[in-house]
Write a structure and sequence with these properties.
By secondary structure, the protein is α/β, with parallel strands linked by helices. The chain contains 15 helices and 11 strands. Strand 4, helix 9 and strand 5 form a beta-alpha-beta unit. Helix 6 crosses helix 11 and helix 8 packs parallel to helix 9.
């Protein structure tokens, strides 16, 4: 009598090896061909879902069918952020070593919530964040060897939330939140308001401070707002300065803002989500001005340092406030290494308990490119930006709408909002490139962001030629 062996349904190592090779080939082919795709997806709302079954399959489907649907349904619904002709929003560049690092992270399946659950996950992250301090010339107070240290968050939004929570803990350790007030620029990212609300404070507790003609926060206006709130019996506790605002790459005067914060004992957080990567180039380290006086700082390698989403580097000068705000220790997480205080448990450095092995991809990027390679590409993007600025200034139909110190150009046609909206719509409908817009001085403004991994001069030149032709 024979006993039938039950089917496991698992993908065997041999199947994984064969099908994994197909996926790697698919990604490599995509990287080769992405320039040829229309940059902006043209699918209508609901179109992707309508092409797929409404219910999950009862029986296993062949891998070939899944890959066929990837080509048939999914790919047409993708806006190609990795296209060298993607100039919208901000760079979201990735690279070969980063993709492979993410693959290794997925293969290892690490849950790095404690040092004890995966020592290499914690110790590599600590090392890589210390490497980044050196790589970008950041203040030594952010090194893990002192009172501070760094951690990888999923985004600058989450990093700013952790900064707000740490500042709240320092200002109100008894959790009495009455009268707490936070401050940021009216040009700051919308996540600052969301983070304040998530931290348990009403939106009305956030003051948005006016900006100057360069769209940077006015420190004298900040000082006046803080003093007015103190006079009204309120409790100022947190300031978020921005180095490279989303709309225009405006750079807040961090040293002058630090003066106000130090005078009144406020937590200073600096959000340099995209622009922080520029500091890999020594001559661009003006983006670090004042960081030696900041309580916390963050930037996103997943925006302009060839590391795919999600990867934000978040630093604190004194980790005690952060850990005090976020540490909760149930019995089931107690272990000897943590009890001895000899290790870092990153679960105390952010909101989630579970965490992926994100440091692997950043480690692989830094090792693959080296500081030399990273500097080369950041310099190249900034040089292309300055070429575009010169072309715009030479055409009397267009004007710059804001300074362009790094890799974002804000410009507009002098014909007004209607002309600029038509131009934007026609450019994006062409499929040849993708731009986004903002409003500066209450006027519609086009944004062209340079920084994708494979963007070259010919792509920027072709974009400008198309803009001029359609204008």
């Amino acid at each position: 009598m024979t006993t039938e062996v039950p089917r496991s349904f698992h993908m065997t190592p041999d199947e994984f090896r064969r099908q994994g090779a197909e996926v790697i080939e698919w990604i490599a082919r995509y990287m080769e061909q992405v320039e040829d795709y229309p940059v902006l997806s043209s699918v209508e709302p609901g179109e992707v879902r309508e092409q797929l079954p409404a219910t999950p399959p009862e029986h296993p489907e062949p891998f070939e069918a899944v890959m066929a649907d990837l080509d048939r349904v999914i790919l047409p619904g993708v806006t190609h952020w990795q296209s060298p002709n993607f100039f919208a929003y901000f760079p979201a560049n990735t690279s070969g070593p980063s993709i492979l690092g993410d693959l290794l992270s997925s293969g290892l399946g690490v849950q790095g919530l404690l040092w004890a659950t995966r020592p290499a996950c914690t110790e590599l992250e600590t090392l890589v964040l210390d490497w980044v301090v050196d790589l970008l010339g950041l203040p030594e107070r952010f090194l893990s060897t002192g009172d501070g240290g760094g951690v990888i968050q999923d985004s600058a939004s989450s990093a700013t939330l952790c900064a707000v929570l740490a500042a709240r803990h320092r200002a109100a350790p008894d959790n009495d939140l009455a009268g707490l007030v936070a401050y940021t620029s009216e040009q700051a990212h919308s996540s600052v308001e969301k983070d304040v609300r998530v931290a348990g404070l009403p939106a009305s507790s956030l003051r948005t401070i006016e900006v100057d003609e360069r769209f940077a926060l006015r420190p004298e206006a900040l000082a006046a707002a803080v003093e007015a709130d103190l006079a009204a019996g309120l409790r100022p506790f947190f300031v978020c300065a921005t180095v490279g605002t989303t709309s225009s790459t405006a750079i807040d005067p961090v040293p002058a803002i630090a003066d106000v914060c130090e005078r009144h004992g406020l937590w200073l957080h600096v959000d340099a989500a995209m622009s922080g990567s520029a500091a890999v180039v020594p001559e661009l380290r003006f983006v670090n001005d004042g960081l030696d006086r900041a309580d916390s700082y963050c930037f996103d390698p997943h925006k302009w340092l060839f590391t795919n989403f999600d990867c934000d580097c978040f630093y604190v000068a004194d980790r005690s406030a952060l850990i005090g705000a976020l540490s909760v220790l149930p019995e089931y997480l107690r272990n000897a290494a943590s009890e001895q205080g000899a290790v870092i448990d990153y679960r105390d450095w952010h909101v989630p308990l579970g965490r992926r092995f994100r440091a692997l991809k950043l480690w692989m990027v830094i090792r693959h490119y080296g500081a030399e390679g990273l500097r080369h590409h950041i310099r190249r993007h900034v040089a292309l930006t300055q070429e575009l600025v010169a072309w715009i200034e030479a055409d009397d139909r267009f004007e710059l709408a804001a300074p362009a110190p790094l890799n974002l150009v804000c410009f507009r046609h002098v014909g007004g909002d209607e002309v600029n909206q038509r131009l934007l719509d026609e450019l994006n409908a062409s499929g040849a490139l993708h731009l986004t817009h903002t409003r500066l001085d209450d006027r519609l403004t086009l944004r062209l962001s340079i920084g994708q991994t494979h963007t070259e001069r010919r792509h920027v030149e072709a974009a400008w030629d198309r803009i001029r032709t359609l204008a």
